[in-house]
Amino acid sequence: MTKHERWDDFLIAEHEMIERAMAVLKNNLEIIDEEYDLQQIKRALDFLLEFGDKIHNQKEENLLFPLMHERGIPSEGGPLGVMLMEHEAERKLLQEMLMKVNGLPEMSDADLMAFKSEGLEYLTIRAEHIWKENDILYPMARNVMQEGDPENMLAGFEKINTDMYGPTAWEIFIVMVAEVEG
Fold first, then answer.
1. What's the pLDDT at 70?
2. DSSP secondary structure letters along 30-50
3. Do 30 and 117 form a contact (C-beta atoms < 8 A)?
4. Which of 181, 143, 141 is nearest to 10 (CA)?
């Protein structure tokens, strides 16, 4: 159970955990041609896909975005279309990197640089995406929400966490991100 009273604080707190895993990935990518921690890269990629996409993005794609559309914000094009397109780009890059990560120790310098480039592309897309959501999309959503929407949104987010990880989901996520940083 989280301690957040507002739906947007809930998502922003998740963004902060995602950013912690992003920092681990970035640190390892910056030294990929020297010395890197393969286990840490794997853990970061796993966390970013499992938590960042399958938990966090699910909340937006299945609850927040449909509500915003229902309240008059178009899903095609515009901000929601851009967010969905970026979610897909993030997902694709993470999946590609996860398929390659075990081969890092045997990769040629050129392949290492290509992996690094994919990783930095992911980090750029994700960082800009988080900024757009925190500073533009979430305020836009607050402006169109009606009575009961914020509470329903928060309850829906809690339900996703509980359905996926049980009643102590938030604590599990905190441990998961700490293991990434480990």
1. 96
2. HTTTT---HHHHHHHHHHIII
3. no
4. 141
